[in-house]
């Protein structure tokens, strides 16, 4: 009796079956491989063995599946091309609609490294702008504010140019940067005080808040700012005195003289009886600081919301205008890319990773909020500066001509007395002395904001 032949069993599937060869194709045995299911379909095989490599396998690309790229794309449609470029859809024209695995995540220009680099650059640019451009205008503005006997109010920037030129000719280029060292020290003391209070409160008094913060967190944050402004009032008074003092009659003060002046104002060791005591100056200055902070924060968030709403509205209008003419933007089109954003400012959108879309709205909103805050609170700032400098025997530059100097002599009883006397003797415009310096300051800052936008667009590749 003949023994039944044993069926030859291979220990492992062949090479072609390991890589997902379909049934009916020519197979070539392999040596050893674990069992593998026959469900993989990314590699297509031909029956001609040996012509296309040692294993007789021909892998066809994913674009040979007969699928067509976008239909309805018009190369002459400039508006459609603009929309696709804005939302990162340029690379989709030669990619099949069903192949979503190869969609571009983000370009090199929009990488996380560039985002961090742009944030650092913007912070440094803001600090340099405050020291090099804003600070000279602040010095001119303060000198005009405390000079209540001046003939010229300098309500426009055109009248203040000649004064600045005459001051630089008589005292040197650095005359408009007097007190810049104490300004940097004041910012450092303020930051250190806020960090210390936040640590002592075990994080309840947070230094930063957002719109998603609770009401109690917002109250704690305002308490942090209020206490900090109260503690920093003597140092601000010393800095104000240093920033308006004329260089023609005094030497450049040192850091020790600044700190000693602040401590003298703190403990009441003053030589003039006309200086208002600190407890009468703390409340107006602290309220002015808090009001400025709250107003600028609210305005900034409102402007950001308006910018986002306007961008979303324009995005929807453009898509509505393009949907009837191009199947690329049809909602039910099978060729529509799955990455077309629902909103141009959404976090997951390709366009939101552009540097100009991420950073410029925040820069512009901060600029507009600061401008409105400075204009609204300008009279209060004038009154506070006048009562702060009273009795300090400070000699300021002559803001009428820019040549010579004059003493500050006033005798106010407090905040409201200073405001009423100023309106009575100088008129309501007396509280806006030096307003031209504020206009000049924000005009130069606006030029820097536009330059920052151009730079961000250039880095992002939109130009």
UniProtKB/TrEMBL annotation:
Cellular compartment(s): Mitochondrion outer membrane
Segments of this protein annotated with the region Disordered: 1-35, 47-73
Keywords: Membrane, Mitochondrion, Mitochondrion outer membrane, Repeat, Transmembrane, Transmembrane helix, Transport
Membrane topology per record: Multi-pass membrane protein
Ranges annotated as biased composition (Polar residues): 55-68
Superkingdom: Eukaryota
UniProt xrefs under InterPro entries: MCP_dom_sf, MCP_transmembrane, SLC25A46
Family matches, as PROSITE patterns: SOLCAR
SUPFAM superfamilies assigned: Mitochondrial carrier
Solcar repeats: 357-459
PANTHER family in UniProt: MITOCHONDRIAL OUTER MEMBRANE PROTEIN SLC25A46 (PTHR21252:SF2), TB1 PROTEIN-RELATED (PTHR21252)
Family: Belongs to the mitochondrial carrier (TC 2.A.29) family.
Name used for this protein in its record: Solute carrier family 25 member 46
Provenance organism: Clavelina lepadiformis (Light-bulb sea squirt)
